[in-house]
Amino acid sequence: MNMKKITAALVSAVAIASMSAMSLTAGAANYADDKQAEGSTTTFSKYLVMDKEANVPNATFNYSIAAGAAKAATTAEQSEVYAGLGTPTITNAVFEAGDTTYDTAPTEDTVELEDTEKYAKKTVTVDFTGITFPEPGVYRYVVTEELGTGSQACDIEGSATKTLDVYVVDTNGTLSVSNYVLYNAIIDTNDYKNEGGTSSESDGKKVAGYQNSYDTNDLTFSKTVAGNQASKDKYFKFTVTIENIVAGTVFDVIGKGTTFEAEPSANTATEYSAEDMAAANGVDDNDTLPGQQIVATSGTVTKDFYLQNGQSVKINGLPAGAKYTIVEAEEDYTPSVDNSDTKKNTETDTDTASNSTGIDQDVTAAFTNTKSGTIPTGILLSIAAPAVIGLIAIGFIVTLLAKNRRKAEEE
Prior knowledge:
By secondary structure, this protein is of the alpha+beta class. It has helices at 3-23, 201-204, 274-281, 378-410, and strands at residues 37-38, 41-51, 59-67, 81-83, 89-90, 93-95, 117-127, 132-133, 137-147, 154-157, 161-171, 174-183, 209-214, 216-226, 236-243, 250-256, 292-295, 300-307, 312-319, 323-328, 334-339, 352-355, 363-370.
């Protein structure tokens, strides 16, 4: 081989080596700027599941997004996983009282419901606009949910931290984003393709978004009147205070009992006015929702109610952790209360039911007022004795008159 051929071979070898080295360099070296993939936007769903009798809370769920961990490909079938580039923006999910709810899920929603549940839905947007991806492969991000204002009673199903992969492909020398895929939890493999993963169902499955459950409980209190001197027509006053809640929280109020009246009428046994009782029992703080509602204007709400014997009030949808106090106004009766709450306060008063640690179950507080008197049976005897004597005397007189008449007739 002559010197020219040797020199040419060396130059060719150097060129090939240089190209190979460049092909292993990440970045924009292999693709012109106009052929790099530019990100756009993607979305995922946020489902908030609650009891059918509860109202949607004023609750915010905050989201953050950060770069995930890179993972080198070990086989030709695997995609190269790169740490996410740039700083995508992500919106939060904000729910409000009065939001639309659904009893059944359409096919596009992956929410799972029990027969007694409904859900509200929001859409979260992730914006990759302005971020360019220089190589084909998977660009991995981590999305994290944090509970915001009013969402402390909302338990998350699955992991609060999920993996969002951006799939970039090379089509005839042009890079483009082919798909965005959200996976439950943080994944540390590059076996995940567009058609699904190979990991466990809990960690590796593709998900449509986040699902949280709004944990609520119902509070019911009732009135029973007992005793031979008790008035069954009398109305008794109750003051209900609910604390540790978010302003704007809506509670449905359901009056129960065969004789419950939203507008009680005054009677001689009741010391309260019909106007005051009607304003209390007919409470409706939200005109946009059917039925009666209590709306909290702050972290505490207080309402009065008036009940007769056999009546009760049910307040639906107290969020987990809410505190309550029910106080019956003092009357000339002997009061008692049976509170079903296993975490109830140990009251010394017999006219109060409360929980200052936070409700975590449906609660029934049964209030009973008793008023009895002793009927002196001796009075009945003292009346009966003269009556018997009078009857005997009358009989004697009648007999005597009859004798005298017969005697007179004989003479």
